[in-house]
Amino acid sequence: MKQPTFCPLHPEFEGFLKTEIIFTENLTDRTKFNISYIRSIHNSALSHLYSFAGKLRDVNISKGGFPFASALFLPETMNSFDKEILSKLPNKYNSKINLIRDIALVHGELLLIHPFREGNGRTARMLANLMCRKQNYDSLRFELLTEEMFLTYVEAVQKCARKDYDKMTELIKFIFPD
Questions:
Q1: Where are the domains of the chain?
Q2: Quick check: 34 and 82 in contact, CB under 8 A?
């Protein structure tokens, strides 16, 4: 009988998996989601692989011809994100729809900014999951976003650049845990 082949986890995946467990275990109703917290997620997940883990990128990047926030202005952009969005998140939500809207806002804006050289999407998804768990919900079901829906997801992110969060809110609502 043939022995099963051991397939180790990809080092980035393993780092994010361990980090999500650690951050979930340390999550309290007083946890504040801010720039430092986001950088800590990224650093924890990727510091075993990259020297730039947890540091704002110093290079401009784009995907599919879509440019992300300029590296030159990233500190100011992240400070504005913190002041105008993250600092206004409540510790406790009085309705599920308000939580969904805030997750859509934070997720969309963080993806637009793309503050790191690598791991932005995974960091944004982990933060969205932590926002859910803080309110005693399970993780978002990102696995429901099929390949066919990926273009809708990209379009939702691009609409966030125009401060139109409706499509992202619908996507978050679609993958929100029951």
A1: 61-175
A2: yes
37 to each of 16, 53, 64, 67, 152, how far by Cα in Å?
14, 13, 29, 25, 28
Chain centre distance of CA 176: 15
Do the beta carbons of residue 61 and residue 113 sit within 8 Å? no
pLDDT at 51: 96
Look up the pTM and report it: 0.92
* Per-residue pLDDT at 46 exceeds 90: yes
Distance CA 160, CA 111 (A): 9
Reported CATH class of domain 61-175? mainly alpha
Alpha carbon distance 51, 127 (integer Å):
22
Q: How many CA atoms lie within 13 A of 23 on its CB side?
A: 29
pLDDT at residue number 64: 83
Return d(Cα 84, Cα 82) in angstroms, integer: 6
Question: pLDDT digits over 106-163, tens only?
Answer: 999 999 999 999 999 999 999 999 999 999 999 999 999 998 898 899 999 999 999 9
- Res. 9: pLDDT tops 70: no
Torsion of CA 48, 132, 114, 45, to 10 degrees: 0
First to last CA, the chain: 43
